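Changelog note: in this version the structure field was regenerated for every chain. One regenerated record is shown below for reference.
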Amino acid sequence: DFNNLSTEEFELADLSFAIWPNPVVDQLNVTIPEELNVQGMSIQLFDMTGRLVKNLPTLSSNQVEVDMKGLSSGTYFVKIKGNGFDKTERIVKK
């Protein structure tokens, strides 16, 4: 039944997030597409063991700076979630 098809769940796939620089030294920049309402969204940073090392529970802007000073060099995972959206990216800290 093709009458029930919806493109709603595919819309977010075309939105472009930007997470830079990678590798990061002191500050990670995250740009969330303007089409998404950042109210209710969060950014979490996990180390390779899955331990939460940074949590930004409430975003107020589509441009977010994540302070990475004081974190050890290595690989981390940045998770952006909320409002039915969930995206995870791998980054490297120098």
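Spot check on this record: The two ends are 52 Å apart (CA to CA). The beta strands are 18-20, 27-31, 42-47, 52-56, 63-67, 74-82, 85-93.
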